[in-house]
Specification:
Blueprint lengths: L1 H24 L5 H5 L4 H4 L2 H21 L6 H26 L6 H8 L8 H21 L3 H19 L11 H16 L4 H34 L17 H13 L1 H4 L4 H15 L3 H4 L10 H25 L4 H11 L4 H18 L1 H21 L14 H7 L2 H22 L2 H26 L14 H6 L3 H24 L8 H16 L10 H8 L9 H8 L1 H7 L14 H19 L10 E7 L11 E3 L8 H5 L5 E6 L7 H10 L13 H4 L17 E8 L5 H7 L4 E5 L19 H13 L5 E6 L20 E3 L1 H4 L2 H28 L6 E7 L20 E8 L1 H5 L12 E3 L3 H8 L6 H12 L2 E4 L7 E4 L5 E2 L6 H16 L6 H4 L1 H4 L1
Parallel strand pairs: 1-6, 1-8, 3-10, 4-5, 4-6
Antiparallel strand pairs: 2-7, 3-9, 8-9, 11-12, 12-13
Helix pairs in contact: 1-13, 1-15, 4-7, 4-9, 4-11, 5-6, 5-7, 5-13, 5-16, 7-9, 8-9, 9-11, 10-11, 13-15, 18-20, 18-21, 20-21, 20-24, 21-23, 26-27, 28-38, 33-35, 37-38, 38-39
Length: about 1000
């Protein structure tokens, strides 16, 4: 008797093990492999038959075994759901461990709610079958065996008829049809079957299997013939192999009858093993699971070994779950209650009561989480554009977008807010004060980001925190009404917080040690953003899994998508450049030697020494030729605002400069002009090298280092963009700005403008030129045309004289701002004329490189995709004074001047002044001569873009081998001086 039991147990475990292994094998689709066998069109059907037969067979087994179980149906549902969730947790954790890049929070949702997310159609069918089980048993008890058989056949036929179209059996809704298979299992378990019937059913199984092959082959031929003839097919091409196909059901029923004796001895533990197999077979990650393990794809032997290992791991998981789950307090109490209860209403009431009690115990935490989620949503509403998110091709409502797409990024924001709150609560022990601080900081930060986006077209970056020292200057740029509203709101919040602390105090029930542990964990959470941008790191993929995809290419849109706070965190640790594959000290030395030879070759034809020249790099704030604005019309009755500068086209190098910014980015254009490095080579153009790169060096090479004396002049406050400290790293001898020890003289504002005029800038530049006898370098930055453009000028000749495309200039506010801007440009034109007249009288070589840094932030950035090059093109000219032209300088360059990058100015100035070059400048010269204009990608993607002299985009794939080599050399130098080891600084002769 004992031997017989052991034999039965062995055969039962053997059959269950074989079935589970068969399910595990189905993680992969082997249809193609079977089709490669002879008669592949027939053998190619095997995987589909096995898969669909499994979908039918497993619910039948559960129907048969569970119908004779002593446990309540709800107890079984809970246990199987628990097994499924436990399996999914381990399954996904292993998958993410080996393939973290695919992690996303929707998969976590699928783990917790496997039925609603269709993690397994088999599991859903079993749960739905168990819910219906008492009703099925009761119904079948009313009728005879023949009547039940007839009814089940009819239900199978009806299910097939209603589901044989294009319906896919991957979704939970299909379980409604497949419950018929569960009912078949209940029925067959109670029918007495003789050995003779078993033998007959074995023959039926073979015949039905052949019928499946032949029938599917014939139907497939008909299907494809009709399809090729132009018929629109609306049914499933695997019509005969449909999981509810009567032939397939007959085949599975036959197999069930053959193995009925084994099925009758299946235990609850073995059923749960089948649950594990079903999850591994059908979970959404199943088809990708094997690819996460590289060794599995080496050969078929390794693949088989992998499947065996997964099978062994599955059984181990069953044993682990059997030991862990029953010990959990929640599991104990739930199974104890469900074992004595079958009434769905009473179970629901008990669950609701338990949920209420849990919510009551944790009401403070729940309120805190809900509040942080709410204010996180409010922060997105604040930075939205009239409750719309400005995506490239659509403008969805911000609330709908948050709830549908960006919900997990809001949850991630809430996690960080809660971490900050936890630390504050640990320090202050005051709930409402801690909560209020977090709330005020987030909403205040969101308002500040909104204001900055309105004014500058970009959100607040970590680098902007250094601008806090310029608070008074920043406040002057903000509408006074906004300041008043914020101040009133702040007073109300403070008063409300004090009231709540007195009247509704909340004290933590946790011990000091426990709160300390939570505070420590919160600090670790707050450190994670420092790894957000480290590709191939788990934290990077975890962040992406929360739908937080750092929007470096378009930070304004990213701020609206993910929220200002989360976008701010994304910029905490910018990964500047990806290391070139050939970056080594040896290769750097070879490259520097290469361009030393190029410099020597260039210098054979150059006669001037740069240090003897006086060079002025003049960044003119927001200077753009108004006639280049898209769709603008300036009345003919109004004077030409740039009459003189346009005339310079005839006697100076003149054209359009490609800006890496729109409405902002002054420091980045200054960085390009001074260093010759290009923003387009960085991972993102949204960084500020002055703040994020230069401070890492004690010395940073610029064009100024080639002179015995270099200075900078800015007729505004000098603390913006870390200029004071950075100019020291550039080894500038002097920096004159408002408030510096070097006075800004001749200060003159025009009408109501809060900024010094360009007259002030040029007068100070003129005095600096005359202050030294020899050559020098001057970096001159003006401020006159800085935003906002608040109708500053009285008797403005352009008021009412500007019109254009109604879609662009329909707003009276835009027309007023444009009139103010154009009037400012006219003043710039006037003062440039005066300055050039003055330097033409000086008897020493002077060359001025004049350029507008970016478009003013008057027009919406939504126009950029339509006018990408146009709205990133400003005016520039390079003018050499009369004395310089008489002593070797060219009046103008005649080639490649229509469109240039800011980083080209060094090479262009050197050529125009006929000055000798350093090896680094030789590289810049080659870049300027041999490549199209290099700039950021205006389409919003990372990387550079190439612009032709006609202002058209050039595909990088069309570059020659030589040109590609040049870009690689350029990238290596830029990486060396931004993210690398600065090997080039060790070579004293490379930059000088």
């Amino acid at each position: 008797m004992i031997k017989q039991k052991r034999s039965v147990k062995f055969w039962t475990w053997g059959c269950i093990g074989l079935l589970v292994f068969l399910m595990i094998v189905q993680m992969n689709d082997y249809t193609t492999a079977f089709q490669n066998i002879h008669f592949g069109s027939v053998f190619g059907l095997f995987p589909t038959i096995i898969r669909n037969a499994t979908i039918i067979f497993v619910p039948m087994i559960f129907g048969a075994v569970c119908s004779r179980s002593d446990r309540s149906q709800w107890n079984n549902i809970f246990r199987y759901w628990l097994t499924a969730v436990g399996t999914l947790i381990i399954y996904y954790l292993v998958f993410w461990l080996f393939k973290p890049s695919v992690f996303n929070m929707w998969q976590v949702w699928g783990i917790i709610f496997p039925v609603s997310t269709s993690s397994s159609i088999i599991l859903t069918t079993i749960i739905l079958g168990l819910i219906c089980e008492p009703y099925i048993i009761h119904f079948q008890a009313k009728y005879s065996t023949k009547q039940n058989l007839l009814l089940l056949i009819l239900l199978t036929l009806f299910s097939f008829i209603f589901s044989a179209g294009m319906m896919s059996f991957h979704y939970s809704a299909s379980a409604i049809y497949l419950v018929v298979d569960f009912a078949w299992g209940i029925f067959l378990s109670k029918v007495s079957i003789t050995k003779k019937t078993t033998r007959r059913m074995f023959v039926v199984a073979i015949v039905s299997f052949l019928a499946l092959l032949v029938g599917s082959y014939i139907f497939g031929s008909i299907y494809w013939q009709q399809s090729l003839s132009g018929w629109q097919m609306t049914w499933n091409r695997q019509f005969v192999l449909n999981p509810l196909s009567p032939i397939l059901v007959l085949f599975v029923i036959s197999g069930f009858v053959v193995f009925k004796y084994v099925i009758a001895n299946i235990t609850d533990k073995q059923l749960r093993f089948l649950i594990i197999g079903a999850i591994i077979m059908q979970a959404p990650i199943a088809s990708k699971f094997m690819s996460a393990f590289k060794f599995a794809s080496k050969s078929k032997i390794y693949e088989l070994l992998f499947l065996v290992l997964v099978f062994i791991a599955s059984y181990c998981l069953l044993e682990i779950l059997d030991r862990i789950l029953p010990r959990l307090k929640f599991v104990k109490s739930t199974t104890a209650y469900l074992s004595d209860q079958n009434d769905i209403v009473l179970i629901s009431e008990h669950a609701l009561k338990g949920l209420k009690n849990w919510a009551k115990r944790n009401r403070v935490s729940l309120f805190t989480w809900a509040w942080f989620y709410l204010i996180s949503m409010i922060s997105l509403v604040i930075v939205s554009s009239h409750l719309r998110i400005q995506l490239m091709n659509r403008q969805p409502n911000v609330i709908i977008y948050v709830l549908s797409i960006s919900s997990f990024s809001i949850i991630l924001t809430s996690i960080f807010l809660y971490a900050i709150f936890t630390i504050l609560y640990f320090i202050t022990t005051r709930y409402w004060i801690s909560n209020a601080i977090v709330t005020v900081v987030l909403l205040g930060f969101s308002i500040a980001s909104k204001l900055k986006m309105q004014l500058r077209g970009e959100p607040i970056y970590p680098s902007d925190l250094g601008e806090a020292t310029n608070l008074n200057s920043l406040i002057k740029m903000v509408n006074q009404k906004v300041i008043i509203v914020v101040a009133v709101a702040l007073i109300i919040v403070i008063a409300l917080t004090i009231f709540l602390e007195i009247k509704v105090p909340i004290k933590s029930k946790k011990s000091w040690k426990r709160r300390g542990i939570w505070a420590l964990l919160s600090m670790l959470v707050l450190l994670t953003p420092l790894r957000f941008n480290h590709e191939n790191s788990y934290i990077h993929y975890l962040s992406n899994g929360f739908n937080n995809n750092a929007g470096f290419a378009n930070p304004q849109v990213a701020t609206q998508q993910y929220g200002p706070f989360l976008n701010f965190l994304n910029f905490l640790d910018m990964q500047v450049m990806k290391q070139p594959s050939n970056y080594t000290q040896e290769n750097m030395n070879k490259m520097m030697a290469k361009y030393a030879k190029v410099a020597k070759s260039i210098n054979k034809d150059r006669k001037q020494k740069l240090s003897n020249q006086t060079i002025v790099f003049n960044l003119s704030e927001s200077f753009v030729d108004p006639y280049t604005f898209p769709g603008i019309k300036i009345s003919k009755s109004a004077p030409n605002p740039v009459k003189y500068i346009q005339q310079l086209k005839s006697n100076s190098t003149y054209g359009s400069m490609l800006s890496a910014g729109y409405g902002g980015g002054t420091a980045n254009m200054e960085y390009e002009s001074l260093t010759g490095l290009n923003m387009g080579l960085f991972k993102t153009s949204s960084m500020t090298p002055f703040v994020q790169i230069v401070p890492k060096h004690s010395f940073y090479p610029t064009i100024g280092m080639n002179f015995n004396y270099a200075s900078a002049i800015h007729d505004y406050y000098g603390t913006f963009y870390s200029r004071i400290e950075d100019y020291k790293r550039f080894k500038f001898n002097k920096f004159a700005y408002m408030g510096s020890k070097y006075k800004i003289t001749d200060q003159k504002k025009i009408d109501k403008s809060p900024y010094n005029s360009d007259y002030t800038a040029y007068q100070n530049a003129y005095k600096q030129i005359n202050a030294r006898q020899g050559g020098q370098f001057i970096n001159l930055i003006s401020m006159q045309n800085h935003m906002p453009y608040n109708n500053w000028y009285t008797n403005n000749p352009y008021s009412g004289k500007i019109s254009g495309d109604k879609k662009i200039y329909s707003s009276a506010g835009i027309r007023t701002q444009m009139a103010t801007f154009v009037r400012g440009v006219q003043y710039t034109d006037k003062y440039v004329h005066q300055f050039i007249q003055e330097i033409d009288k000086i008897h020493k070589p002077i060359t001025v490189v004049f350029y507008g840094d970016h478009y003013p932030s008057i027009l919406s950035q939504r126009l950029v995709p339509k006018y990408p090059v146009q709205m990133h093109s400003t005016r520039y000219f390079i003018y050499s004074n009369k004395y310089a032209r008489q002593h070797g300088a060219k009046a103008k360059l005649t080639e490649k001047t229509n469109y240039v990058g800011t980083s080209d100015f060094i090479a262009m100035m050197l050529e125009q002044t006929d000055s000798k070059v350093t090896p680094y400048q030789a590289l810049l010269t080659e870049i300027y001569k041999e490549l199209p204009a290099l700039t950021i990608n205006f389409g919003g993607n990372p990387g550079y873009q190439l612009i032709s002299q006609k202002g058209k985009l050039i595909d990088p794939k069309t570059l020659t081998v030589k040109q590609r080599k040049l870009i690689r050399d350029y990238e290596m130098i830029q990486y060396d001086m931004t993210s690398g080891n600065s090997y080039s600084l060790e070579n004293k002769n490379f930059y000088k």
